[in-house]
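== Sequence, structure tokens ==
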Amino acid sequence: MTDSLDTPADAGRPDGGTAASAREPSTVSRSGSGTGYDPTMAPGTSFDDVPRGEGEAAPVLIEIRDLVKYFPIHGGIFRRKLGDVKAVDGVSFSIHRGEVFGLVGESGCGKSTLGKTLIRLQPPTSGQAAISGEPIFDKKGRDLKRLRRRMQIIFQDPVGSLNPRMPISDIIGEGLLAQADAENGWGKRKVRDQRVGNYLEAVGLRRDYARRYPHEFSGGQRQRIGIARSLALDPEFIVCDEPVSALDVSIQSQILNLLLDLRREFGLTYLFVAHNLSVVQYISDRVGVMYLGKVVEIAQVDELYENPRHPYTIALLSAIPEPNPRVRKKRLVLKGDVPSPAAPPLGCRFHTRCWLREKLGNPENCVTEEPDFRDIGGGHRVACHWAERATEGAAVEYVATHSVAEVLKTEEAEPGAESRSGQG
């Protein structure tokens, strides 16, 4: 089944306005300027049409301070606690209203755990978080239920996140039913179905799709249903947990443009978790880089991609494929494996694989002192003792001086490699 969008160009919004059609190109300019949504902005105005200086950021919507999430390790006959997996360990940053904050890093670094903990899908170990100044982790009972309307999530797997035994109307309407009260009237089936149909149209699907089941849709259409479900409660903040990683490349672009259109139409704020660095560069206003439970660098998207200052970020960016076949690009390959989050290294957590530390002669403070997460100018924050020495020029020099040695080491490890390479 294909991802055809059998919907009018101007699908109806739940509030009676017009939602951007998924068939049309995104109306949001991707300049990476970091500007955010302004509730006073005239309808139809693009973010980039509103002049805003570097110091005129939108108000903070999400504030995270020293967030910690540990998973206990139990063992033995009596299931005693042996230690902790430190999935998220002392993370602090803020997200401005209307902003797309990208979060990247290797698998297992804690990106998805951070997002799920932030919206209370799992309890935090310690730390604080707030939405518009209202504490998130202190809420209980009815207050927590009311808070959940403001924060939603788009899951990575468009197949596993939808109940195969429920029609689409019940999947999207389940949250409405759970949050129903006398004021909103969501307990009435007719009201729910009307709202479900409106949001299906908002994501580029037909209203009559509400009667179908998940197996009748393609992967891209299922993800649109997941997006409609996250919009149903009219949230302010959405965690996008790798929403396009399971989709074909052509469908990825449609979903990304749809998310940008919905941000403009509904005034949404995203935490966008992803592995694909090119996708993050396209959709994000600011980007954070995580390594082993810590955020090691945060900057505006253009600043981070053009002037990375953490050795790990530089290594990640060197892995982005070069689209020009005439350009030969040498990748900065990190040595060794990622340490276990159950026993992270002391000092800087990246020092066991750090190419810059090796280039500088293995300075001792990388092992003995944890680096401060400091601002090096213009809101560019980095956790590295030697950030001023971490440049792409230094990385190119390191790759040039180590490439021959690495080849010789590989040939010594495989004595028959030369004879095999000369065959047929």
